[in-house]
Amino acid sequence: MRILDIIEKKKINQALTEEEIKFWIDGVCDESVADYQTSALLMTIFFNGMNEYETAILAEAMRNSGDIIDLSDIPGIKADKHSTGGVGDKTSLALCPMVASCGLRVAKMSGKGLGHTGGTLDKLESIEGFNIFLSEDDFKKQVNEIGLAIIGQTGDLVPADKKLYALRDVTATVDSTALIASSIMSKKLASGSDSILLDVKYGEGAFMHTVEDARELAKSMISIGNSLGKSTMAMITDMNQPLGNTIGNALEVKEAVETIQGRGPKDFTELCMCAGEIMLIQGNIASTKKEARKMLEESISSGRAYEKFIQMVKAQGGNIEQIKNTELLPKSKFITEIKSKKSGYINTIHSQKLGILAMQLGAGRASKEDEINYAVGLKLNVKKTEKICEGDSLCSVYHDESLSLDWIERLYSAFSYSDYMPEHTKIVEEILK
Questions:
Q1: Catalytic residue chosen out of the listed positions 92, 183, 186, 195
Q2: Full-prediction pTM beyond 0.90?
Q3: In CATH, which of 3.30.70.260, 3.90.1170.30, 3.40.50.720, 2.60.200.20 is domain 332-418?
C-alpha cells in the first residue's frame, strides 16, 4: 500500500477503505508518511469530503493512535460534554456540577483557549491553586469518589490529532466538517465516557456561521459516536451574541458560581438547564425532560450544585474561599463604564468583535505562547432586544492598561440599534440524536 495511491484515490473523490485510513494514520504517527503527503491528502479531503463511514473510521484510527482512558471500573454511566466554542462560554463550569449533584458522574477533559477568549481550563486556572493536570489514576479516583472532574488531557491521548491539526492549521484545511468531526470525536472517544453531549454553536461568534453548517457538523459527530458505541446527542445553540453577560476568565467563573446559586443570566441558565436535561436522560438518571428539569432546579435551590463545585475545586487543589467569596478572584486594576451614545433597542451584539477586544485586553491568546490575564474582560449590561437610553451603561471594561480611543470606538461598533424591538432568538435552536 502506498500513500500516493491513497491521495490519488481521494483526489478523484473515491471513498477510502478502513485499511487505507489506518495505513495513513499509522504513517502520520511513525513519520513514514511525509508531512507534505499528509497535507496533500488533507486538501483533497477538504474539497471532496468524507462519507459517514470514512469519518468514523478516521476518528477511530486517531483515537487508537495513543492512550485510551478506561473508566469501566467506575460504576454507572460516565458522562462527557463538548462545546464547539463561543464567546462567554463558561457552560462546563455550571453545568457539570449541576448534573453531578443529581447523581450523574461527569469525567471531562477540556482544553485551553486559543483565540477570542480563554478555554475551560483557563477559566478554572483563574482559581488560585486549581490543578488541571491530574494523573489518570487520580482522575478516575476523583470521578468515582465525588462524581466530577474537569482536567486537561492526560497521558498521550490522540497524538495523531495533534499532528494533523498542526498541518491543518498551516494549510487552510481547518474548516472541513469531516476533519473537525473526527478531531473532536477522537478525543471524546479516548476520554472513556459512555455518553457524550455536543453543544454545536452557530452564528457570528461561532466556528459554524449558519444553523445548516452546525447541523451538518452535529450529525457527523453523532454518527461517529453512535457507530462506536457511545450515546451521543447534540444541541444546536445560538452564538449571535455572547453567552451570559461576561467575557473573561475570572469574570466567567464568578458568573458560573452565581448561576449555580440561582442568580445567573436567563440565556446562560436556560442553556445549562436544556443541556442538563439531555445529560440526565442519557445517563438514565431521569426518564423525561420535565423530571430532569425538576431535579436540576432542586440541585440549585438546595445548594447541592454549588457544594459539588466547591468539592471539585477543593479536590483539585483550588482555593475554595474564592468560590465562597468570588470577590477574592483575580481583579483588574481598573473598571471603566462604557455608556451608550444612542437610545433604542439593542439589535446586534457582535460576539466575535467583543471576543477579539477581550483578547486584546489579555483575556485570550493570539498565539499559544501568550499568557492569560485572568482578571480582565468585559461585562455586558445589555442584551439583544433590550431597550437602552443614551447615557445608560452598555458594558463594563475590566482592564490593567489604559484604553485607547481606537479600542473604545471598536467596542462601540460591536453594538447596533433599532427603533423597534428585534425578534427574540431561542438560545437552543434544536436537539439532535
A1: 183
A2: yes
A3: 3.90.1170.30
